[in-house]
């Protein structure tokens, strides 16, 4: 004979045998406490199932990362600077992190043009102008923040997407930058050629030279970025 | 839909850049609020993280819609969480508490209340689960995320019948803990 608890769990999990079902029904009809316990166990199962199947842990990892980044950007004493500085120096030497070092001009981000874009709300235009100001002052953290907001507000304005990608390059967040620039580079918009160039820059930086070469070769001769693309292409070809 | 609903989406989609954006926009305000109310910087960041997880669960469970700015809502959740934490720490005398969040957003506070109480209830349940013995926790956690209990039994080196018996015992134990918890006593 199964216990009350077992009958409840078998019922919830839908594995109650015909014989146990009779015992369960008798208890259910005659015992208010049993019914209350069943209700509670059903509720517990629903909440636990939902909570344990959620992506909470993944979210927490992102929150911890964001917190670390945020706190690092704040008050850091000179002692705390030493370790990251030493680590950064090692990375610079060992991993050949040459972005923005040699051939700086090839990696330089363009100036963000101040202009009123499609989207006729004044706030939006003001935000865009603030992004222009921050971007051109190389305060990429700020420009990313504003552009992300603008992009989320209207994802059809590709100008936001383009400069958001560039701003993320400015922050050296290359993976995220790729996410915004690749669709433009593979698309048909006016940003196609330049997006292709900056995706190629990221690829070069990641050591994916063949893919970078392919991207650069695809840039049309009539494009404003063509000369720069050729120079970068030559540079890649010359590297051992 | 409120314009700030995008912040909720950042959490639901675990959008890394969006979450960084949330921290840039709101972290300092939350930390300042906690620091003004007997907390430290670390407390502030802990409360912010826990509150964002709570908001994620609120939004995931039901079709949650913001009726105020995200900032007001976040500060409201953080404040409530911090007050609960202070109660836990038995430091009930809170000085200089900022009430503007409640004062200004009084109606929305009521609207949000149901969501906040629900998520608190669920958080307590998860804490109670963690207070069970390791074996019970393992059995419950595995049985809740997979329906194939025969496979679970094999991987735990148990017979299926024994797993069923243990699961019912563990769930009953959890039920007892829930019934005995002051939160559930006072909310029943």
UniProtKB/TrEMBL annotation, chain A:
Organism domain of life: Bacteria
InterPro entries tied to this protein: TPR-like_helical_dom_sf
Keywords noted in UniProt: Membrane, Transmembrane, Transmembrane helix
Residues spanning the membrane: 81-100
Matching SUPFAM superfamilies: TPR-like
Keyword Transmembrane helix: yes
Name of the protein in its database record: Tetratricopeptide repeat protein
TrEMBL record, chain B:
Protein name according to UniProt: Sigma-70 family RNA polymerase sigma factor
Keywords associated with the record: DNA-binding, Sigma factor, Transcription, Transcription regulation
NCBIfam families per UniProt: sigma70-ECF
Family membership: Belongs to the sigma-70 factor family. ECF subfamily.
InterPro entries, A to Z: RNA_pol_sigma-70-like (IPR039425), RNA_pol_sigma-70_dom (IPR014284), RNA_pol_sigma_r2 (IPR013325), RNA_pol_sigma_r3/r4-like (IPR013324)
């Amino acid at each position: 004979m199964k216990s009350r608890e077992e009958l409840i769990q078998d019922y919830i999990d839908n594995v109650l045998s015909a014989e146990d079902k009779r015992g369960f029904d008798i208890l259910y009809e005659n015992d208010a406490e049993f019914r209350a316990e069943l209700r509670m166990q059903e509720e517990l199962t629903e909440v636990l199932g939902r909570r344990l199947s959620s992506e909470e842990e993944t979210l927490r990892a992102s929150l911890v990362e964001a917190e670390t980044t945020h706190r690092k950007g704040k008050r850091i004493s000179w002692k705390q600077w030493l370790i990251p500085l030493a680590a950064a120096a090692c990375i610079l030497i060992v991993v050949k992190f040459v972005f923005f070092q040699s051939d700086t001009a090839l990696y330089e981000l363009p100036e963000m043009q101040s202009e009123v874009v499609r989207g006729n709300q004044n706030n939006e235009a003001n935000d865009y102008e603030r992004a222009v100001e921050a971007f051109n002052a190389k305060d990429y953290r700020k420009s990313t923040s504003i552009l992300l907001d603008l992009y989320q507000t209207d994802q059809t304005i590709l100008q936001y997407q383009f400069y958001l990608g560039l701003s993320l390059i400015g922050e050296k967040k290359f993976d995220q930058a790729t996410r915004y620039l690749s669709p433009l580079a593979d698309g048909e918009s006016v940003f196609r050629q330049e997006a292709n160039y900056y995706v190629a820059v990221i690829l070069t930086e990641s050591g994916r030279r063949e893919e970078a070469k392919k991207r650069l070769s695809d840039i049309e001769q009539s494009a404003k970025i063509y000369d720069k693309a050729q120079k970068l292409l030559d540079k890649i070809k010359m590297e051992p | 839909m409120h314009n700030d609903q995008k912040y909720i989406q950042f959490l639901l989609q675990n959008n890394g850049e969006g979450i960084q954006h949330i921290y840039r926009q709101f972290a300092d305000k939350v930390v300042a609020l906690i620091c003004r109310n007997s907390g430290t910087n670390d407390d502030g960041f802990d409360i912010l993280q826990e509150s964002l997880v709570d908001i994620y669960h609120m939004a995931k469970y039901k079709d949650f819609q913001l009726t105020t700015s995200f900032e007001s809502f976040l500060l409201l959740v953080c404040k409530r969480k911090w007050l609960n934490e202070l109660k836990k720490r038995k430091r009930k005398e809170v000085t200089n508490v900022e009430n503007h969040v409640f004062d200004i957003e009084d109606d929305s506070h009521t609207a949000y209340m149901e969501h906040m109480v629900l998520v608190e209830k669920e958080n307590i349940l998860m804490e109670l689960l963690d207070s069970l013995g390791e074996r019970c926790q393992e059995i419950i956690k595995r049985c809740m995320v997979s329906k194939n209990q025969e496979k679970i039994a094999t991987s735990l080196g148990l017979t299926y019948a024994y797993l069923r018996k243990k699961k019912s015992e563990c769930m009953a134990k959890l039920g007892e803990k829930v019934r005995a918890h002051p939160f559930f006593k006072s909310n029943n």
